[in-house]
Amino acid sequence: MNIRKALIDDAKAISELIVPLTAKHICPTCDASVHSLLLHSMSVGKIEHYLSTNHFYVVAVNLNDEVVGVAGVRDYAHLYHLFVDDNHQGKGLSRKLWEAVKEESLRNGNSGRFTVNSALNSENVYLRLGFRRTEGVRNREGMMDIPMVLEAACQQDI
Fold it and tell me: From its phi and psi, is residue 146 left (phi > 0), alpha (psi between -120 and 50) or beta?
């Protein structure tokens, strides 16, 4: 498994990975009224936009050069996407992807504070990465999430 910086040419593969995972794992926890909006936010065009603006992404590619995982941060401070193909979960890939975008963020001026809006069924993943809740479950017009924060500067030698 190789983790590398995502390129604009990876947008299609990233979208093809995260749209079905979102439909399967995240949409069922949100109101049906936001499903199309959520899935559209992960379209090829949107991913191309993220990759060409204030987002930094890495991808995990297998031996066949297929994208099987992705992590993206906005403004080197907000974990925007973290997805791993179902067949590759439970092997530490989420942590490796997170560490890659975290390290790049720290190199680019982040002082050690990161945020994420966790899907309801992803909270345990983020807790294992060191995030903690900042408030309870939110319902923002049908979009359900859990706001979380990680103070990496306080995570020294853990």
Answer: beta
Domain boundaries, the chain: 2-154
89, 60 Cβ separation under 8 angstroms: no
Tell which CATH architecture fits domain 2-154. Answer: 3-Layer(aba) Sandwich (3.40)
Rounded to two decimals, the pTM is 0.90
DSSP conformation class of 31: -
pLDDT digits (tens, 9 = 90+) for 48-88: 999 999 999 999 999 999 999 999 999 999 999 999 999 99
Residue 21: φ, ψ to 5°: -65, -40
Burial class for 127, CB neighbours closer than 10 Å (0-12, 13-18, 19+): middle
